[in-house]
Amino acid sequence: MDAPLFATSCLYSGSLDHPIYLDVLTPTRGDAGKLPMLMLHGAFHTGSAYLTTPDGRPGWAPYFASHGRPVYVMDWPGHGRSPATADFHLLSGEDIVRSTTEAIKEIGPCILLAHSAGGPIAWRLAEILGEHVRGIVGIAPGGPANLQRPLPDDPELIHSLRDDEEAGCPIYADPTRPFLVDMAFIRAYWANTPRFPAAAIERYARSIVAESPRILNERFRIGGSGLMLDAPAAIGSSRPVLILTGERDPRHPRETDERVAHYLNGEYCYLPDRGIFGNGHMLMLDDNSDDLAALIDHWLSSRGI
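Predicted structure:
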């Protein structure tokens, strides 16, 4: 019997007020010199989105570990197996940045792979940590708050913009309590493409968790909140940066994500330009997830990281 391609373990890191849980996948063979990858999930999710797909296929974490790269998969504070505090509704992007900073200090220099609302966190981490962040792969990532138009703290107005792609299809979250989404939301924004494993949508829905309203309102710059950058162009000029999106993601039209890539001095990959069609927001769960992982792996190799 062949030896396993990677070993699994876990650790707790983060800050004392916002600890985080990480799954650790350590290759047992292959190129021992590859930089570790830290995977950041998006809002309403946990690191489980990188470990397996709803229909039971190995996820991106096993893929990269089996190709010789150490992988760390974190749960944001208060998500999954990371402990929640009584004031979870006050969890902010800066809280996650500070907590993840502690984890990166333990891991050492690494590559960030960040999805959706994990994008602004990754950009800020790169600015704070400098050479500790050697590269970033943004998967349909949110842009820095610098690029977004501030929206008023007005629930009725935000609700009227919920289907406005130019405004980013914003969500208003009551700041006094955690925010939940229903199956209709899941079908509209995350499981809305032919490549999503639709037969396993109920299993996927069980993985969705409550989110901090502060995180959501920051993501859409409601009330002028959000993670800002001091020197956006330095993000991509100091390290390789790739932003990757498909064509069926309502919040990530090509123009928006291409603008983010240019603003950060990074590279942009629109999947239809590679002859890859039908992908939406949850690229790591789609039926061609291995092909997309291979594309990312090739890009990392071509950039020497």
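Summary: The beta strands are 6-14, 19-27, 37-40, 71-75, 110-115, 133-139, 241-245, 267-270.
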